[in-house]
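Minutes, project check-in
Item: structure for the 225-residue chain
Input as provided by the requester:
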Amino acid sequence: MSGRLPAVAGALLLAGCASTVTGHPVASAPTAVQRHIGAQLAALLPDPAQFPARYPAIVLPPEAAAQAAGDLTGIGRGSTVRPEGCLPPEQRFGPDQTAIAVGTDNDSRATVTVELTRTDQPLSALRNQLKRCETLQVARAGATTTVTTQLQPPPPIDADDTLALRRTVAPEVGGARLTQSMQTLTGQVGDVRIAVTYMSFSDAKPDTAVLDELFTTAVQRVKQA
């Protein structure tokens, strides 16, 4: 059963009155994680063979997964972030804490990444933080970057909650060729968060067909666990 709890906001007949109040049904996002998914995260990742042929994929070992996770947020381990309060919760790494598979198109220098994380926070907590933290200054190892995140309409898929975002990570020095551009679809099923990200170093449009395909595959695998 979906974790979404519909709020009754349609036409309401007021007791003792002939008038009606019109509106549209609105789904409210869960405010707590409601169930545990028992399967190991590594087993829930799409198989590399399920990635499109132009994106040959590998499953990352834990240390490489930690590096990749920082690339996806633009906030590596040991970074300081301004404004205060915008540092993401500390991410845990291990076989059943974070699992990542990455497909790479070497011709376009683009990647598509499927990341599964175990979390005790609802997706609404991330959404609220992103609304407060659209533009960040991130400093790490003497380098400074500007991370800009824009929320977009959530993907329509049967999950507890979903969101979509567009993100750029621009270095203070180095020029446009080093700016990362990312499009991410995120969903949550129980205590498993699913994020699929298309990343490139150009202003070219993201490969939304691949993004949608892998996001659908990843969500369905978690839901069937």
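Outcome recorded: Residues 208-223 form the longest helix (16 residues).
No further action items on this chain.
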